[in-house]
Automatic annotation (TrEMBL):
Top-level taxon of the source organism: Bacteria
Matches recorded under Gene3D superfamilies: Periplasmic binding protein-like II
Pfam family for this entry, one: PBP_like_2
Domain PBP: from-to ranges: 32-263
Lineage, opening ranks: Bacteria, Pseudomonadati, Bacteroidota, Flavobacteriia, Flavobacteriales
Keywords: Signal
SUPFAM superfamilies according to UniProt: Periplasmic binding protein-like II
Species per Swiss-Prot/TrEMBL record: Chryseobacterium paridis
Signal peptide range in chain numbering: none
Residues annotated as transmembrane: none
Name this protein carries in UniProt: Substrate-binding domain-containing protein
Keyword rRNA processing assigned: no
């Protein structure tokens, strides 16, 4: 009798142990650790979305790591992180590599309209810049334009927009978009190229200080001037408007896909709007008067 009772107890304990292990390993969108790779240019909006997700799901722990866009994509393929933020279109080779290494279809989760902007010191006499000036300047040995580095999202996007390879462009480098803003006065004949999200937050003290140091040049295209304001981003009239999107290598609905879904819902899109960017998913509000 005693032996049979021992067998029953051991059997029950083994079932409990197995069920606990399954519970620990089961996918969960609301808890666990997640690393997101993002270019510095859109780090602010990524961090804001991560903070919003962690407030809603306290058991989720999200770490946002700054990484150049090209390198972030490669690290995603290698499984070093589960989410990467992208802005440019992938080449056919990159699409094939994603499908082969991740093992799923390419499904970009678009969440915001951002922009690459051209800036000069506040006291500069220049008031605009044309598409021709941009193209010719990036092929000149004068290296008139200052980017935040090679492999950066800003350089990649401008090159793609001009149908060029980044290696074919001529430019100067000051690491870090905020450093470009702060040091631009030293180079009055240069034009800085940064991401709008660097200082797009309307009421953030640091953003206000950075915006006060420079002015954004409207871009002339086909005889018209376009600015990277909300209207220019929403209608994508500003020539260097870019759509930010998430890529993941997570095959199930775990924390990575949970975070991505949250970012594309109304709560996440409200955060995007508070960042001074244009939400990709626009939610209409209807008010009925009685």
């Amino acid at each position: 009798m005693k032996n049979s009772m021992k067998v029953i107890v051991l059997f029950v304990l083994s079932i409990i142990a197995i069920s606990c292990k399954k519970e620990e390993k089961s996918p969960s969108y609301y808890k666990g650790d997640l690393t997101i790779l993002t270019d510095e240019s859109f780090k602010s909006v990524t961090e804001a979305l991560a903070d919003g997700y962690m407030i809603n799901y306290p058991e989720a722990h999200i770490k946002v790591v700054t990484q150049k866009e090209d390198l972030g994509f490669l690290d995603l393929l290698k499984g070093k992180a589960r989410v990467a933020v992208m802005s440019r279109e992938l080449s056919n080779d990159e699409l094939n590599a994603y499908k082969e290494q991740v093992g799923s279809k390419f499904l970009p989760a678009r969440f915001a309209a951002d922009a690459v902007v051209f800036i000069v010191p506040k006291n500069s006499s220049r008031t605009s810049i044309s598409m021709d000036e941009i193209q010719n300047g990036l092929l000149s040995e004068n290296k008139q334009f200052i980017f935040d580095g090679a492999n950066s999202s800003n350089l990649n996007y401008v090159a793609q927009k001009l149908k060029k390879q980044p290696k074919d462009l001529k430019f100067s480098v000051i690491p870090g978009s905020e450093n470009i803003i702060e040091q631009l006065n030293k180079y009055p004949d240069k034009i800085g190229v940064i991401g709008l999200n660097t200082f797009s937050r309307p009421y953030d003290k640091v953003s206000i200080q950075l915006r006060d140091m420079v002015k954004i040049l409207p871009v002339e295209s086909k005889g018209k001037l376009y600015t990277p304001d909300i209207s220019g981003l929403r209608e994508m009239k500003y020539p260097f408007t870019r759509i930010l999107y998430f890529l993941t290598n997570e095959g199930n609905f775990n924390i990575a896909n949970g975070f991505i879904r949250y970012s594309c819902t109304q709560l996440g899109q409200m955060i995007v709007q508070k960042e001074g960017l244009q939400p990709y998913n626009i939610y209409k509000r209807e008010v009925q008067m009685r």
